């Protein structure tokens, strides 16, 4: 049990059309973006437009001022005494923008010809003034989405980032979108037109800096690295996002996934990212379509911005004059579809893609609205679940079916071993509202093997339902022994002669997202006294916890900004517990060497496993320790009576591409039943095996172990993760710590490590 | 002004003998450490003894139990069903210790034959039990100092550290000292005696782990790296310290300094670290003596433990029987000095070293008790200083002398320029209790150049003293014009004809530990209107801020544990401001390539500089901006009237040896006056130039810019530090961020970066 769906999600019967907001951008816009132009753009099918904040007039004015300053400097005998030039306030000829209600559909674009990070103090000074004037004016006009070109050189990233941070402070609702290429340079480069300040600085003002970077070969991850530096300086602000330019050639799947995990607000599709189909229409290549689909499945999909794909057709060209009434939506649609010589074919194509998005896999539909939503794990041992929670779990199309198969298999094996005769005693412990009881009875009826079925449940509210069901359900038919008890205190079933008998098959569903995190091992140890010591079978028989390091900027940013009071935690504690979360916008840091280019399999390691029943010798030692009969003590305190359920592990993960680790994604696998005959019934949420073992199972989301301070990895790093399942006499908790190494000249060197994280204070109570 | 000495330090007239606590350790102690033995050890001159917690009997018992367990396993058909063995409680034959008052002079030693980090779960399990039993028993006996051997292999450091962390939880007063070599292996290795569990594990129990480490060449910094990992996992606990074994050959000065910066509680000198002098007595080599001296100068010097230098001589050997009365101290001393065949020559030699420690440099004597003590910088512009604070500053043997020289030089230059005639107008702004006034008058009297002297002071309390001094001091003799005013509002001196005149020389002492951090630039800009526009001279004429990255585990640990309420700060803020601190136990991370082996010069960079007077054009632009006449705005808010005093810089530091950066050490240099003739009077706290420019100056401690999360550096790293001096219309603050790079195959790759730190909320008010 792992998903707290309180009052929320569930299957959507029909999937609605994908959401796609479409905008239009021109790198050199020649007509002012007026309310009228916007209205017309929306009439032809766009949702929004970009708008330069200032005009070419403003640029000329700044350049003239710079030249004037240069002359003053040249004439001055003490250039250091000349104050830096100041740009006077914007005048109406400097900007076409004005406050209007429709401005919420505009994305303001700051001047691309400035260089915020120039090594020349003069250029940097002027650039910061331009930037600051522009952002402040856009905010004043009520435009809260501002797109700004990324840094000109990697050398100046820190200065650039500092300027962006400052700009975020200019308005409380400002959203800054940093325009970046996926790799290398922007396809639509505006810096080559001779009036870019970075170029002026190189040509005129300062001697070129002694670049000690090797700029010859741009780094594949250079653009991502710049982004990472900028958002790190801005402390993962939720108001800082990316305008990602999609190139004609998509980079490797690894780099695609990396960007997918980042907060992309605008997806910029330049004309060059389209190809022509056989009929000459612009379309996207298959890989581009798939990448777009990945983005459209995000909880908050980015807006798609078509760049330089042609101007908004004028009303005149359409022979639409202002006096004519607006066309009805039907007319507009008809027009849009029929027009032979379509003036907006790129836009139309994207609307087509929007209509034809493939449907989502069940878990995504089921979890809609829960993507990347952090929840504390359930504590079913200390809390009583509500009916709706049970109901959600019972909807799983796979889980209970697999349980039924496992029970049937076990019944057959036992019948063979024990021979015909007395019915087989099956107990469902933690029966909830009884779904597993039904499955046991179905397995019995399908195999024709008689069972004596018990249902044990500690929740008094669920107990009412179990009794009612036993009385009214045709299958149950009054044959189920319903017991209200914590399974650990249940003495066992009463036999026909009034004695306490043993259970042949003990069925439970106590697993959490990380297998043992809801104390299945402790519960099953506690009920083992009812199991037949020779041939008793546990379903599940064994289970294991699995994990892999991941990058999740979104979750990290959420946790950073989250008040700990949301979770009744103290400030330091919000990093000190695992969360159940439907991981969505994230990236695997360690992937297995790929057989095919388009497959990407994470390296998921098995942390540890448990199998049942536990050896009698071990349980007997444990019970002696519980009484304090031996004084050895537990490893982390207490008598040590549960120490046999402590675990630890340490694994090395190879990470080929540089990145930032924000934590560990955790999963589980379980063998419900493995027959000596070789048949096996398994469940898995491990992304590597889930499709093979239990495709479309929806009951469990992954678990996420956060890192308080994200860890940097260079290319070809090795991450070493140490994990512990700790226990004292009252609770169970996890601890995790991560180290980063690299190999240089065959030698391993350590690059860093995280703190030790421990959920001791938030441990699961036994 | 930088040191807040409130009620504290000052020159000690005589330096007392160095403090040295001496202990005796035996790797294989054959006699129980009884109260009697301890008393005798103290009688012969030791302060303390180490004591093994358990006896060889206990070790045999554990080994026997292990063998029994192995047989059980061998006989079992299901080895995984056999519970792990438990060690039964200690019995009197297992330990010689018992609770006694004298136990506070004992250092308990845990069994060196365990392997807490064994990859074999059985060995790890048994080792942790032994460790836990022992530490808990020592704590029960009231022994709070526990020495534990460092990890056996680097592979298991995380597990080892986890065990140490757990042990720290066994008693609230426990101090754990981890025994480590400076590099490589311990000289006194106890793991080779055949009964070490690590060895047993290798031989008997498990197949050797597939070590993928290249163990052939031990890393020079391997031992330090293990320590760093352990204390990082223990979150820089102040109860976790080092017992450092000093080898026969000391490693490089860099590695010596690294260890010196770490929390060494015990300095273990094994027999092998001594050499024999000409007379055959054991002595330490010069380098060892110097290293010891460095440690003894720490605020809390480590205890020195002599290891395996011979047993405590028995009372019988001394022909002292218990019935004989204790010798008087005089008798004991005589005996200690005269005995020809000294049974404790190593101890005696160290006592000799203790008596003959060289005296400390003035700043260390002056700052005694202030080493590594973090203070918030003064805010003299908003707070009024107390007399005692002035008094402390006035004791500086160098600073005021140098000011007098600078004034004399400036007087001579001005007299030459202006010719004889009217007296030269000298104003001391921020005169305090008047020490600079006195120096101005002395310079005048020594050079025979007449001055008209003004003393401007805003502190009304100091103003009283200035007036009294003018009336009573023979040198002042009523000739000083005392003005109570903020210097920025002072119109200037009144001339004989009642008009407002100009000042020829403006003397101030407004510098802070980082030069401009107490707003000298803003104050001097504010008073510049009184300075003669053509020939006016500022003393100081210019100043610059300097910094270098440092490792300071002590300061980091202090800040971590410090309640922010100590400083009236919010939790997140304690990392967001610089501190004035007498840096003491720290290490430079970037040192200049050394000319000599025994010299180690940090790489200190100049962040930025200011010079006075400021150009009139710049001041005039600033005053226009103050009125909002131009709307350009400041870079970080406000009108931008102080933007000309904003600064920024970015530097790369090369760091040859791996380490952890905890922050930046900051310093200043100033040119008080540079004569056109070439003569220059300078002050410096920059460790590279301080001795040359102003040796023995005591008025300023360095400044420390902390990093919230320590940054790891591998060998040959490059650190890139970006710093800003930011300003709006009301205050000034600093920002700093650090990146780490390395070069691999000629390419630079980024390894990590810090957050952006900003003291905006704690800025200095203008």
Automatic annotation (TrEMBL), chains A, B:
Start and end residues of each PRMT5 oligomerisation domain: 542-765
Xref: SUPFAM superfamilies: S-adenosyl-L-methionine-dependent methyltransferases (SSF53335)
Keyword Methyltransferase: yes
PRMT5 TIM barrel domain location: 45-355
Annotated S-adenosyl-L-methionine binding sites: 390, 399-400, 457, 486-487
GO cellular component, one term: nucleus
Signal peptide positions (record): none
A GO BP entry: regulation of DNA-templated transcription
Domain spans labelled PRMT5 arginine-N-methyltransferase: 364-539
List of catalytic residues: 509, 518
Keyword presence, ATP-binding: no
Superkingdom of this protein's organism: Eukaryota
Pfam families linked: PRMT5, PRMT5_C, PRMT5_TIM
GO terms for MF: protein-arginine N-methyltransferase activity
Assigned keywords, A-Z: Methyltransferase, S-adenosyl-L-methionine, Transferase
Span list, region Disordered: 316-342
Classification via InterPro entries: Arg_MeTrfase, Arg_MeTrfase_PRMT5, PRMT5, PRMT5_C, PRMT5_TIM, SAM-dependent_MTases_sf
PANTHER family: PROTEIN ARGININE N-METHYLTRANSFERASE 5
Protein family membership: Belongs to the class I-like SAM-binding methyltransferase superfamily.
Protein name as catalogued: Protein arginine N-methyltransferase
Lineage of the species this protein comes from: Eukaryota, Fungi, Dikarya, Ascomycota, Pezizomycotina
């Amino acid at each position: 049990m792992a998903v707290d769906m309180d009052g929320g999600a569930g299957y959507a019967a029909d999937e609605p059309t994908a959401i796609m907001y479409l905008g239009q951008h021109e790198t050199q816009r020649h007509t002012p973006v007026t309310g009228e132009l916007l209205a017309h753009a929306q009439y032809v099918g766009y949702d929004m437009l970009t708008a330069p904040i200032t005009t070419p007039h403003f640029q000329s004015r700044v350049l003239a001022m710079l030249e004037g300053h240069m002359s003053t400097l040249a004439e001055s005998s003490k250039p250091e005494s000349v104050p830096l030039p100041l740009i006077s306030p914007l005048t109406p000829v400097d900007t076409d923008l004005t406050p209007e209600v429709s401005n919420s559909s505009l994305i303001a674009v700051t001047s691309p010809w400035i260089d915020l990070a120039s090594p020349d103090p003069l250029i940097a000074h002027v650039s910061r003034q331009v930037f600051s004037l522009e952002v402040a004016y856009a905010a004043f006009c009520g435009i809260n989405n501002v797109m700004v070109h990324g840094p000109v050189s990697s050398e100046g990233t820190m200065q650039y980032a500092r300027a962006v941070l400052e700009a975020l402070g200019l308005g409380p609702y400002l959203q800054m979108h940093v325009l970046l290429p996926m790799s290398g340079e922007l396809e639509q480069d505006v810096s080559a037109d001779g009036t870019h300040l970075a170029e002026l600085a190189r040509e005129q003002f300062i001697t070129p800096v002694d670049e000690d970077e090797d700029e010859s070969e741009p780094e594949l991850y250079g653009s991502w690295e710049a982004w990472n530096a900028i958002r790190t300086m801005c402390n993962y602000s939720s108001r800082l996002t990316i305008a990602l330019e999609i190139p004609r050639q998509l980079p490797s799947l690894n780099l695609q996934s990396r960007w997918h995990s980042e907060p992309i607000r605008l997806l910029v599709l330049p004309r060059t990212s389209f190809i022509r189909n056989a009929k000459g229409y612009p379309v996207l290549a298959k890989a581009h379509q798939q990448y777009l689909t990945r983005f459209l499945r995000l909880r908050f999909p980015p807006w798609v911005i078509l760049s330089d794909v042609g101007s908004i057709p004028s009303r005149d060209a359409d022979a639409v004059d202002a006096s004519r009434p607006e066309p009805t939506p039907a007319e507009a649609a008809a027009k849009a579809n029929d027009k032979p010589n379509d003036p907006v074919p790129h836009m139309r194509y994207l609307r087509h893609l929007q209509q034809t998005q493939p449907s989502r896999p069940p878990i995504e539909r089921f979890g809609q609205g829960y993507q990347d939503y952090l929840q504390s794990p359930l504590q079913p041992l200390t809390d009583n679940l509500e009916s709706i929670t049970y109901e959600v779990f019972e909807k799983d199309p796979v889980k209970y079916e697999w349980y039924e198969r496992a029970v049937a298999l076990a019944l057959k094996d036992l019948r063979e071993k024990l021979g015909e005769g007395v019915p087989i005693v099956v107990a469902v412990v933690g029966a909830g509202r009884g779904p597993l009881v039904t499955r046991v009875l179905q397995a019995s009826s399908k195999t024709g093997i008689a069972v004596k079925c018990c249902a044990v449940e500690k929740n008094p509210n669920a107990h009412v339902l179990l009794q009612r069901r036993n009385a009214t359900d045709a299958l149950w038919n009054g044959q189920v022994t319903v017991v209200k008890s914590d399974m650990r205190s249940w003495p066992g079933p009463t036999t026909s002669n009034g004695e306490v008998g043993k259970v042949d098959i003990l069925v439970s569903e106590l697993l959490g997202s990380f297998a043992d995190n809801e104390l299945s091992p402790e519960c099953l140890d506690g009920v083992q006294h009812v199991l037949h010591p020779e041939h008793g079978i546990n379903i599940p028989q064994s289970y294991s916890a699995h994990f892999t390091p991941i990058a999740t900027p979104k979750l990290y940013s959420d946790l950073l900004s989250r008040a700990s009071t949301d979770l009744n935690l103290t400030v330091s504690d919000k990093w000190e517990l695992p969360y159940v979360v439907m991981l969505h916008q994230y990236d695997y840091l360690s992937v297995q060497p790929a057989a095919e280019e388009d497959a990407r399999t994470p390296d998921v390691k098995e942390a540890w496993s448990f199998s049942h029943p536990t050896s009698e010798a071990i349980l007997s030692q444990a019970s002696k320790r519980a009484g304090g009969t031996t004084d050895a003590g537990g490893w982390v305190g207490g008598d040590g009576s549960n120490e046999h359920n402590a675990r630890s592990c340490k694994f090395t993960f190879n990470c080929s591409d540089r990145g930032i680790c924000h934590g560990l994604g955790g999963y589980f696998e379980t063998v419900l039943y493995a027959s000596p005959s070789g048949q096996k019934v398994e469940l898995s949420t491990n992304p590597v095996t889930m499709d093979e073992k239990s495709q479309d199972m929806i009951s469990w989301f992954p678990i996420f172990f956060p890192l308080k301070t994200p860890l940097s990895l260079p290319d070809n790093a090795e991450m070493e993760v140490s994990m512990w399942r700790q226990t004292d006499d009252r609770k169970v908790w996890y601890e995790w710590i991560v180290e980063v190494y690299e190999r240089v000249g065959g030698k391993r060197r350590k690059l860093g490590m995280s703190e030790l994280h421990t959920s001791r204070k938030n441990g699961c109570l036994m």
